[in-house]
Amino acid sequence: MSFKTLAVVQSTSTVTKIKNKSIVVQTGSRGEKSFNFDGAFASTELPGIYSSQLSKLVHEALSGSNVSVTCCGLNEIGSGNILHGTGYNANNGIIPLIIHDLFDQVAGGQYLVSVSMLQINNKGELIDVLNPHTRSMNIKHNDKIGVYVENLSGIVCSNADEACGLYTEGFKAENALKMGQRDVIVTLYVSKKQQAGSSSSGILSKITIVDLIGHESEQENVGIKALFKAMGKGKAKKESALSNTNKLVHDIILNSSFAAVMACVSGEEKDVDTMMSLFDMVKSTSGLRLSPQKSSGDLDKLLTELRQDIKVVRDRMMVQNIPQKKDVTLLENLLSDLNAVKKTSWDQRIMLSNLYVEERKRHLADRGLLWVLEVKKGSNSEEIKKLQNCVEKLSAEYKDQKNSSEKLKNDLRSEIDQYTKLVESGNSDEKDTKARVTRIQQKKEAYKTESEKTSKIRDDLKLVKNQLRKEKEAGLDVSSFNFEMMSRKLEEDRQRMKTENQQLVDDEVEKLKVESAHEKAELEMRSSSGGLQLDANEQLRNAVQLATLKLEKSAITTQLDVLKKENMQMEEHIRVLVEKHGKEVEIQQLQNLQTFRAYREVFEEFKVDLENRWRGLLDDAIQDAVFLNSRNTELSQENEMLKMNVNELKDALSLTGTPPGKLSSIIDK
Questions:
Q1: How far is 592 from 582, CA to CA, in rounded Å?
Q2: Are residues 592 and 516 in the same domain?
Q3: Are residues 359 and 480 located together in one domain of the fold?
Q4: Residues 171, 49: Cα–Cα separation, whole Å
Q5: Which of 202, 178, 181 is nearest to 190 (CA)?
Q6: Which are the contacts of 26, defined by CB distance < 8 A and separation ≥ 6?
Q7: Is residue 500 domain-shared with residue 359, that is, in the same domain?
Q8: N or C terminus of the chain with fewer C-beta within 10 Å?
């Protein structure tokens, strides 16, 4: 058993800094405050964090133990980038790293992996993110199978890319479904194929990733903050006193053989007190003691035990004149548990997964979220690796080539400066001047050659980066993006193009400065040696050309200023339009939500009425069955007594010598 508290800061700033295993927070006039964890990292170290702190997850899961990672963030940006990485196709977050590691170790068809994704909104309502159906979803508990969510869909995945794609679809749907503060639970269910002749295989283990948002602002005696504090002190909580989120988190963490709780912040939050409250909340779990229950994966044994429990309750109800309400409720729960366990078998999971895949298209379409499924093809991970290696190689070559060009440029500029000073002093002789001019010319040609090589490598690097970006986006249909996603993507494209263009301009300006200095040195050399003799017409033409160039420069400068202002105004207009569109969409969503809530309230009332009628009929049926059974027993006993009396009467009359015919008539009377 292993439990860890970790802290991950997305971007270091003047507010926070990492020191060994601690996060140091600058509190202004109050000085510094340090928070100690089992590990403290920057978000740029995610692969290293996984390999050094979380690599035991998959090994423990494959050995039959449940494992979990709980991520606590101040907002979805801080925790979201840690869990799924940056960008919608990223593979550098905690969840993609776990998925790839899991499938690397279960290759060969001996394991079955399925994925579920649950959202709990600020009202405590449970939403199946992958398959947002309207069936009732309740949290159930059984001593043999633990806590589970009724009617939560699990979709089987055959490889890591498929699982990551499914999670990406769920992530997009979750962002569209969220209403205020929400928590998300992603679960990977792992089963191992049994050998021929052995027992049926059920769930071997679960890998659970929990994303908790905004709980640091809760009061000390309620919510996740209170739960963490109680768990850290080893105090058990009554299930009935916990909210839906707390029930699941309590069971997920305590029943794990390996668990980690992470504090995830961007490091730029303005509210330092809120950030410190989050660190305190995570740190309060440091004394937690895990109590895992290792699963054998033996489905037949579990089904037999549940059926035995059901038989005990039924037998107890049969001897009761009127069944007690608690026994009826217990029987209903046991039947629900039995049905849930049946669904965990290898064949049932595959069959239900196919059903859920078909269902989710209809359910997502009903909520206007069908666009999350518009994925044309998965990205080629092998091709991505090749392109990434090519980018790294070209980047190193470009860096070396640029350093070489910079060195030649500095040498050329130094040579030109020395020559200019020598000419201005008037101490140069013809031989020394020619030697310097020859060196300058040679260095200029060498610099020109190196600059061309640098430009070529830069163009190749840009081309490969574009190919890499396109390959990463190959699994997404851009036309299916919602407005927010598309706006964000286009903004990133504009910023990338602006950076590349600025680098191109800077390189050209540097090249122009070097060539200008060289031309100036040549003109000064020719002037000092008397070789620069211009007649009146040439001087006039040069003067006119100079005046024309100055005017053109002024016009071009004005044009550039106008274009810059137009660009700034365009960006401002885009920003205003995006904000306006966002507000209009939010208003429309609220109106749709109100309509949906009104419909749901009517539906809930109708459902409650149906449930009450059904329960009433069920109670009446059970009571009638018990009454009839009891009455049948009484009548059977009376019938037996009558038979005995008749036989005794026959014996008595036979002793008196009454003829048989008369005896029968007497008995009939």
A1: 15
A2: no
A3: no
A4: 22
A5: 202
A6: 14, 15, 16, 17, 32, 272
A7: no
A8: C
pLDDT tens sequence across 450-503: 888 888 888 788 788 777 766 665 544 444 455 666 666 677 777 777 877 787
602 within domain boundaries: yes
460-to-356, 394, 453, 463, 510 alpha-carbon distances in Å:
46, 8, 11, 5, 21
Q: State how far the Cα of 461 lies from the Cα of 390, in Å rounded to an integer.
A: 8
Q: CB of 442 within 8 A of CB of 412? A: no
Q: In this structure, which long-range contacts are made by residues 541-549, counting pairs with CB atoms below 8 Å and at least 24 apart in sequence?
A: none
Domain boundary, last residue among 356, 373, 390: 373
User: For the domain that residue 173 is a member of, what is the CATH number?
Assistant: 3.40.850.10
- Cα–Cα distance list, 385 to 83, 377, 535, 562 (Å): 21, 17, 66, 44
Q: How many CB atoms lie within 10 A of CB 171?
A: 21
User: Exposed, middle or buried by CB within 10 Å (0-12, 13-18, 19+), for 167?
Assistant: buried
Q: Which domain holds residue 88?
A: 2-288+343-373
Instruction: Return the DSSP state at 85.
Output: -
Indicate whether 192 and 243 sit together in one domain. Answer: yes
Q: Environment class of residue 515 by beta-carbon count within 10 Å: exposed (0-12), middle (13-18) or buried (19+)?
A: middle
Give the chain's largest Cα–Cα span: 173
Give start and end residues of each alpha helix (H) in 367-482.
Answer: 381-425, 430-472
Residue 24 in domain: yes
Q: How far apart are CA 623 and CA 297, in angstroms?
A: 39
Phi, psi of 217 (to 5 degrees): -90, 0
* 611 HSE (CA, 13 A, CB side): 7
How many CA atoms within 13 Å lie on the side-chain side of 246? 21
- Give the N- to C-terminal CA distance of the chain in Å, as an integer: 84
378: Cβ contacts below 8 Å, ≥ 6 apart? 161, 162, 165, 474, 475
Backbone angles phi, psi at 163, to 5 degrees: -65, -40
Lowest mean pLDDT among 45-59, 106-120, 458-472: 458-472
DSSP letter (8 states) at residue 50: I
Q: Give me the residues paired with residue 114 across strands.
A: 156, 189
Question: How confident is the model over 241-265, as pLDDT tens digits?
Answer: 567 788 888 888 888 888 999 888 8
Residue 104 maps to a domain: yes
- Is 338 a domain residue? no
The per-residue pLDDT for range 306-316, each reduced to its tens digit, is: 888 888 888 88
Q: What is the pLDDT of residues 330-352, one digit of tens each?
A: 888 888 888 888 887 888 888 88
Percent with pLDDT over 90 in the chain: 4
Residue 477 confidence (pLDDT):
46
CA distance 327 to 315: 11
